[in-house]
């Protein structure tokens, strides 16, 4: 097993670095040895470690850890893009969150990252027609992490959800690649209408804490939504909107606001 782990890790620089950091973490804090060995070093690949974390966190008296582990292993085995997205999400958190200093932190400690990875398995289940199991995953993610993402929502890669408390993303929402959002963001509807009723968030968008984006509207690529804003109209690309209701208050300020995480409002 040790040889297998070494052989696989040498082909995966992300997993190699996680394992190296894990060894150092155990040396620095021996009391975390059991957690780090069972959560990281015991596994042959990044996907296996994520599957273990998924099953450990979402297991309950209603669904055993073993069943959830088998389900997650099946998802990662059949859909390699889930693991690829997990790596992109990890890099997004590491590069954009100043509180993240090591690759292992999101995997072990950051509920926003873990919630998004669990959503990805729920979305895979939804696409397979296993809707009831997908709803179970959604329920448990909401209960455990305080993040409620409908399994039918479509979310790209390179996603960073900072703090992640009270995130809500509705059924027909679409989120592009390289999006950053902070806690208490809602991508919701505006009433009881059925059908396509949730926002479409472009690539590279930064959504500030507490912002509400409501209805089947488009938020253009590389735009910014200021904290606390309520957005009910479409947002042009590369602009900043703020207020209740939100209005355009200036340009986005840079080419990639989701990457810089700069939330200063410049009206010039």
Automatic annotation (TrEMBL):
<keyword id="KW-0028">Amino-acid biosynthesis</keyword>
<dbReference type="Pfam" id="PF00132">
    <property type="entry name" value="Hexapep"/>
</dbReference>
<comment type="pathway">
    <text>Amino-acid biosynthesis; L-cysteine biosynthesis; L-cysteine from L-serine: step 1/2.</text>
</comment>
<protein>
    <recommendedName>
        <fullName>Serine acetyltransferase</fullName>
        <ecNumber>2.3.1.30</ecNumber>
    </recommendedName>
</protein>
<comment type="similarity">
    <text>Belongs to the transferase hexapeptide repeat family.</text>
</comment>
<dbReference type="GO" id="GO:0006535">
    <property type="term" value="P:cysteine biosynthetic process from serine"/>
</dbReference>
<dbReference type="InterPro" id="IPR053376">
    <property type="entry name" value="Serine_acetyltransferase"/>
</dbReference>
<keyword id="KW-0677">Repeat</keyword>
<feature type="domain" description="Serine acetyltransferase N-terminal">
    <location>
        <begin position="14"/>
        <end position="118"/>
    </location>
</feature>
<dbReference type="InterPro" id="IPR045304">
    <property type="entry name" value="LbH_SAT"/>
</dbReference>
<dbReference type="InterPro" id="IPR011004">
    <property type="entry name" value="Trimer_LpxA-like_sf"/>
</dbReference>
<dbReference type="InterPro" id="IPR005881">
    <property type="entry name" value="Ser_O-AcTrfase"/>
</dbReference>
<dbReference type="GO" id="GO:0005737">
    <property type="term" value="C:cytoplasm"/>
</dbReference>
<dbReference type="GO" id="GO:0009001">
    <property type="term" value="F:serine O-acetyltransferase activity"/>
</dbReference>
<dbReference type="InterPro" id="IPR001451">
    <property type="entry name" value="Hexapep"/>
</dbReference>
<keyword id="KW-0808">Transferase</keyword>
<dbReference type="InterPro" id="IPR018357">
    <property type="entry name" value="Hexapep_transf_CS"/>
</dbReference>
<dbReference type="InterPro" id="IPR010493">
    <property type="entry name" value="Ser_AcTrfase_N"/>
</dbReference>
<keyword id="KW-0012">Acyltransferase</keyword>
<dbReference type="Pfam" id="PF06426">
    <property type="entry name" value="SATase_N"/>
</dbReference>
<dbReference type="InterPro" id="IPR042122">
    <property type="entry name" value="Ser_AcTrfase_N_sf"/>
</dbReference>
